Description:
By secondary structure, the protein is an alpha/beta fold.
Amino acid sequence: xxxxxxxxxxxxxxxxxxxxxxxxxxxxxxxxxxxxxxxxxxxxxxxxxxxxxxxxxxxxxxxxxxxxxxxxxxxxxxxxxxxxxxxxxxxxxxxxxxxxxxxxxxxxxxxxxxxxxxxxxxxxxxxxxxxxxxxxxxxxxxxxxxxxxxxxxxxxxxxxxxxxxxxxxxxxxxxxxxxxxxxxxxxxxxxxxxxxxxxxxxxxxxxxxxxxxxxxxxxxxxxxxxxxxxxxxxxxxxxxxxxxxxxxxxxxxxxxxxxxxxxxxxxxxxxxxxxxxxxxxxxxxxxxxxxxxxxxxxxxxxxxxxxxxxxxxxxxxxxxxxxxxxxxxxxxxxxxxxxxxxxxxxxxxxxxxxxxxxxxxxxxxxxxxxxxxxxxxxxxxxxxxxxxxxxxxxxxxxxxxxxxxxxxxxxxxxxxxxxxxxxxxxxxxxxxx
Length: 433
Ligand code: URA
């Protein structure tokens, strides 16, 4: 087999066989296929696509390029949840304890944030003392005991994806549905769960800006999951505005705890219940959606989900007194209002710009080794469909400097305010099974 023939085959729109995909991944990892040939193949895939079978084989060989986590020592049906990334997404802190309270073991590996989206691990580190690194034995023990553990990604999971992603990043080939689907699913499958619930975000703050593309990505990932013997469900959820009202690290943890305390942060609670419902159904805990939502709501309202969160934080060395007194979480030196310069109703929000504004404050990273400031962030006071008068506060910046003019402008420009009344956004667009 020659790589040049495979590049030509894909360039001409033909399908690659399992043996050919295996050859590509194995030889790329063995460094007998150079970056320039793989780049050419990625560009051919970008233009010609891959069918579902090719995408599943690509995923399979990326999984086989490294370790697979063995979760067999954890009792019960393990369900993982993964979000394709958004702004203000703190659902893991609600969904994790909620399904744990329902009796499902959640053994979760999460990432750090890069660019306009935050990372679960960074957010957890805003809890004083919280340890995101556990030994394998501790990880398994915590899940068996408390039904929930969240750690930073360890081990050599899907190293072919890591290398391929770095190459795609610099060759303008990230934005290809089969390549994104195989990249995400290779890591999820290597992480060892029996079932996977995917939160595919759609809109201005998401990877996929249109519902059509989000649906294609969701369908592709669900098919890969099934072909590789994992029950997989994808929820397509709104990311045309940040999720909830808080963007940052400590302030996102705070907002999630408030939902666990029973506060109705509407879009956040709705999405968390939706994701948790599908996780519990896949695990066979509840027979149907209505029963699942009913029982899970009860676990929030009776405090069991909040208790599960406290148990999880304590088991990973976190100071749980901050959960009882949220003001003890890190905070910023200055709190600056961003005022509206027009009046009417909020029609649109550029969620990505809000995420970038939070990153500039120090809540996220522009580069991989940037340091996170856990206390800074943004609180939104207005979201889509809200009425706004000139001079109203649109958002509050929590910042450690007093020169924030560019960030204030960025947030003001992220709002589109028009005269006509508008309806609230749909939160859940579709469920792909
Ligand atoms: N996230 C991933 O893990 N991979 C992609 O290709 C895109 C987003």
